[in-house]
Amino acid sequence: MSRRKDTYYLLSLGCSKNTVDSQSMEALLQEAGLRATTLPQRAEVLIVNTCGFIASAREESLQALRELAAHKRPDQYLIAAGCLSQRYGRDLPRQVPGLDGVIGTRRWMDIVDLVRRLRDRKHPQPLYHLPDEALTVGTDERGVRRVAVQGASAYLKIADGCRRPCAFCAIPAIKGTAVSRPLERILDEARALRDQGVQELILIAQDTTDYGYDLGLKDGLAVLLERLVAAVPDVPWIRIMYAYPGYVTDRLIETMAAHPQILPYLDIPLQHADRRTLLRMRRPANVDWVRETVAKMRAAMPRLAIRTTFIVGYPGETDEEFETLLRFVEEMQFDRVGCFTYSFEPGTPSAGLPDQVDEDVKIARQDLLMSVQQPISLARNQSFVGQTLDVLVEGQAEAVTEDGTPTGQIITLARSYRDAPEIDGYVLVEGELPQGQIVPVRVTGALTYDLVATPDLVSQRVIRPGAVLGPDGWER
């Protein structure tokens, strides 16, 4: 099968922020007359938008590049884009023989220029596009939307880069400092997504709670949310991801509680709960602030769902420090918890710390923490049995038995306000419901991470006259 000129294949790896960059590059490629294909052998241009955040992600990216390089023909161009390229760009051709071009995260908007240069090059050496300057907004975005649409949901990037000093994280080195996007441009994109029929807007950045700092805004995320609900009052769900400890302000809490469109859900990666570990991580170490702020949020939004993540096995983490984390998890009763083992990242401050923790200890601690969280997650899910929830329908699947045998029964896969795409659970609904719609269901069962439900097309809830309903279908 021969390749087709002016055709590209793009593989996007990593997080939702990377997905937005991928779709922005695709928009530019299509404006330039290139057509997408899902078959790499049919493409003229092969692009992998890589992830370079941790070791496992780097290995996945390298494997994808090597596989494409192994089957690449002389009339095809292979480009590495994204985080791995930004961080290790000039070393990549040595690791991936056959690589033609390298473009970093900070200049994704120059992807068409790189393709043109590859077509015009007179020698087989790789071409690099890795300027040191960080991403800037305005004309540099080339007029494309900074969004990624997935079904009835859309990720909307409100900023890029990070100015936080976390010792374990390479994101500032990869992305540069935090740069907020103009508020009016975000609102215009939200309106366009609304016009496309999007039901859920998911605000993302490396740190959403830092939005507007560089624009001189105080409580910038709350300001943005207030403008957003006014601009798109008919978008049912607005979800906030990637909040930073210490920057969930009273105004943000009040704004979330006051507007039913804004989901009572917050993703706030805490990373640890022992002050000593947090100080070595260069993270906010006031754990009492976490307790007080979570209490404020739960008082303002009684049905609030909180997701957080922790790192275990950080250099110097003692048994005592880990025990502090376990007790904290038991105390706080979070709805969703992710746990990662510490990944050694060359070039970060944590790489030079003494007392690196053995890998088997990291894994044992990860398993133990999740074994503590699982009954908490199950109990939180069980509290919804018998209740009615609004869910966003993502699709259908055929049910199978424990040994994988198809049953012939169709199950609808949906998400409630408690479930962010890709990282949280599902609501498994008997039968078929309309894809891309928000519908009420009756919760009949609970699993550790998922809920089981039946359609509830005529809800039996008794609602007070004049009551304000939240996006979960319950009174605020």
Fold and architecture overview:
This protein is of the alpha/beta class and 476 residues long. It has three domains: 7-129, 3-Layer(aba) Sandwich (Rossmann fold), CATH 3.40.50; 139-382, pyruvate-formate lyase- activating enzyme (Alpha-Beta Horseshoe); 388-455, Beta Barrel (OB fold (Dihydrolipoamide Acetyltransferase, E2P)), CATH 2.40.50.140. The protein has 13 helices and 20 strands. The protein has helices at residues 16-31, 55-71, 83-88, 92-95, 111-120, 171-175, 183-195, 220-231, 250-258, 275-281, 287-300, 319-332, 359-382; strands at residues 7-12, 35-36, 45-50, 77-82, 101-103, 127-129, 147-150, 153-157, 159-160, 179-180, 200-204, 237-240, 262-267, 305-312, 336-341, 388-400, 406-415, 427-430, 438-446, 451-455. The chain has a seven-stranded mixed sheet with strand order 7-8-11-12-13-14-15. A six-stranded parallel sheet has the order 2-1-3-4-5-6, with helices on both faces. The longest helix is centred in the C-terminal third of the chain and has 24 residues, at 359-382. The termini are far apart. Residues 458-467 have low confidence and may be disordered.
